[in-house]
What we know:
- This protein is an all-alpha fold.
- 52% of the residues lie in helices and 0% in strands.
- The chain starts with 18 loop residues before the first helix and ends in a 7-residue tail after the last helix.
Amino acid sequence: xxxxMKGQATFRRMQDGTxxxxxxxxxxxxxxxxxxxxxxxxDTLRRLGDMTLGFAADxxxxxxxxxxxxxxxxxxxxxxxAALCHDIxxxxxxxxxxxxxxxxxxxxxxxxxxxxxxxxxxxxxxxxYNHLGKPTDMRMQFKDxxxxxxxxxxxxxxxAPAFDPDFDVDSLESFEPEVVKVFSNPHxxx
Length: 190
């Protein structure tokens, strides 16, 4: 049987965890989440500044421009954070960046925003897939999805026009309040 020490469970196998153990773990996860997740997100976004990937603007500038356009259009905090973080997955994997970004956002945003970020590359494909020998209408498979309109807005109004290295973007620090608000309140820890 597991015994508890102050602030931590002491079981050695998950099978031996008690309700008290898991309440401690849940409390500690939530405390960590509120303290660390927003700043870890900001730190990860900073890493995009080292990546140009052939574009005129580095990926941090692109993220900031996308979020700036969203903010200036009156988007909600969740939408602004989604715009800011839509390419955050590129830090881990460029080909799979949409699903990685979407999974990063999933506990904090609506299901529609999650799906829009997950599939945003297919929506962008309208502008460049023809150059890569792929169909440009891949977004149409989602035309009846309730999140289709937001995905079009994310890509067409904020993401696709956001590659100007000279655009006057809002600073990463200016987005901290929205990032803290969204990433401090997960819908679930699991």
